[in-house]
Write a structure and sequence with these properties.
The complex is a heterodimer of chains A (110) and B (117).
Chain A lengths: L3 E2 L5 E4 L4 E7 L6 E7 L6 E6 L3 E5 L2 E6 L4 E6 L8 E8 L6 E2 L3 E6 L1
Chain B lengths: L3 E4 L2 E4 L5 E7 L6 E7 L6 E7 L5 E2 L8 E7 L2 E6 L8 E8 L8 E3 L3 E5 L1
Parallel strand pairs in B: 2-11
Antiparallel strand pairs in B: 1-3, 3-8, 4-5, 4-9, 5-6, 7-8, 9-10, 9-11
The chains are: A mainly beta (110), B mainly beta (117).
């Protein structure tokens, strides 16, 4: 059974801090990895994707991938209250459709 | 990024009637579309995978005769909830997998809130 695991949270950070969201996956052959943000009552929106080991930065967001450890993370620098949402990790396995984690709820306190 | 449009965004229907939700990829061709259901404060639940021109593949426990999926073109998939009951009230979300430059990236529609009264 291919799985994507995330801590459900809530993860609470103060405004301006770095929020670190983590995700592990079971299919070692997975090739691409995605982070989605979902606000309450809305559908998920794509934030970033990463294919290669290492870091990928986009504005305040940095995705980190370590295929050897089967670990992908999302760092949010200078967290804002508007970043409060549920963050979904998704993994494209070697075969089959995208697998989503259950999401981590992030709360950024003013 | 690619755009996926879903319609209607909110619908209220009477118990026993059928409701159709449309999902369109606006600026790319989607060979595969997915339908999810999400209850309040719960995780996304994949209902079915829809491939253009072929029958949908339903997840275990999802009634294919109740949730009819049609993917007649590369830009349109529809979900029809037949003989709706109050327990079908939920947030239904479609997503589409892009082709070409969009690759394997999945883009979500805005979602449709269904309330069955």
């Amino acid at each position: 059974q291919k799985e994507v695991e995330q801590n459900s949270g809530p993860l609470s950070v103060p405004e301006g801090a770095i929020a670190s969201l983590n995700c592990t996956y079971s299919d070692r052959g997975s090739q691409s990895f995605f982070w989605y943000r979902q606000y309450s009552g809305k559908s998920p929106e794509l934030i970033m994707f990463i294919y290669s080991n290492g870091d990928k930065e986009d504005g305040r967001f940095t995705a980190q991938l370590n295929k050897a450890s089967q670990y992908v993370s999302l760092l949010i620098r200078d967290s804002q209250p508007s970043d409060s949402a549920t963050y979904l990790c998704a993994v494209n396995p070697q075969a089959g459709n995208l697998i989503f984690g259950k999401g981590t709820k992030l709360s950024v306190k003013p | 990024g690619a755009v996926v449009s879903q319609h209607p965004s909110r619908v209220i229907c009477k118990s026993g009637t059928s409701v159709k939700i449309e999902c369109r990829s606006l600026d790319f061709q989607a060979t595969t579309m997915f339908w999810y259901r999400q209850f309040p404060k719960k995780s996304l639940m994949l209902m079915a995978t829809s491939n253009e021109g072929s029958k949908a593949t339903y997840e275990q426990g999802v009634e294919k005769d109740k949730f009819l999926i049609n993917h007649a073109s590369l830009t349109l998939s529809t979900l029809t909830v037949t003989s709706a009951h109050p327990e079908d009230s939920s947030f239904y979300i479609c997503s589409a997998r892009g082709t070409g430059n969009s690759g394997n990236t999945i883009y979500f529609g805005e979602g449709s809130w269904l309330t069955v009264v």
